[in-house]
């Protein structure tokens, strides 16, 4: 009963509504469609299909979720991090370059090329990425140790904030001209 506590009380927990126990159904514990490829016809060449508390209400408080990622040839999942989860990725099809950057002051890149069946771990809070290095589509499944891992995409956060981070600050941070910062901000 403790494992399903959120479904057994009528309150919000972790920001998500808990269901009255009389209304709980099998659909609160399931998700269909993970076998369907995502649409990789976007500038990044990747598609992410999440299975978090937003898709399966019963995950609330259970501390797990997963994601299917589809990659077109040379498609990428851009540098990002999960503020509330470690991620473990398994290559189902294809060949991927994966990596993460350690924290300051070292900022060391830890990367590897993975093949079908290989597994890699991205520690919580560290910037990481994936890129299909093959000429065929690739597919991965990732497990995360949070029902709501969150995602912070570096480019969006830095150059697409609302309101904008001052061009003076970003120009100094990236050691580039303010015009370059404005040009990049314009893309977001």
Question: Which descriptors would you attach to this protein?
Answer:
188 residues; mainly beta; five-stranded antiparallel beta sheet; 3 helices
Which oligomerization state do the chains in this entry correspond to?
single chain
* Major sheet characteristics: 5 strands, antiparallel
Compute the number of helices.
3
Radius of gyration: 19 Å
* SS-based class: mainly beta
Strand order of the largest sheet: 3-4-11-6-9
Total number of β-strand segments? 12
Structural summary, described in words:
- This protein has 188 residues and is mainly beta.
- The radius of gyration is 19 Å and the shape is globular.
- It has helices at residues 154-159, 167-174, 178-187; strands at 12-13, 16-17, 46-51, 65-71, 76-81, 87-93, 95-101, 109-115, 119-122, 128-132, 138-144, 152-153.
- The termini are far apart.
- It has three helices and twelve strands.
- Mn(2+) binds at residues 80, 82, 87, 128.
- Belongs to the germin family.
- One of its GO terms (molecular function) is manganese ion binding.
Helix-strand blueprint:
Layout: E1 12-13, E2 16-17, E3 46-51, E4 65-71, E5 76-81, E6 87-93, E7 95-101, E8 109-115, E9 119-122, E10 128-132, E11 138-144, E12 152-153, H1 154-159, H2 167-174, H3 178-187
Antiparallel strand pairs: 1-2, 3-4, 4-11, 5-10, 5-12, 6-9, 6-11, 7-8, 7-10
Helix pairs in contact: 2-3
Brief summary:
Helix content is 13%, strand content 33%. With 188 residues, the chain is mainly beta.
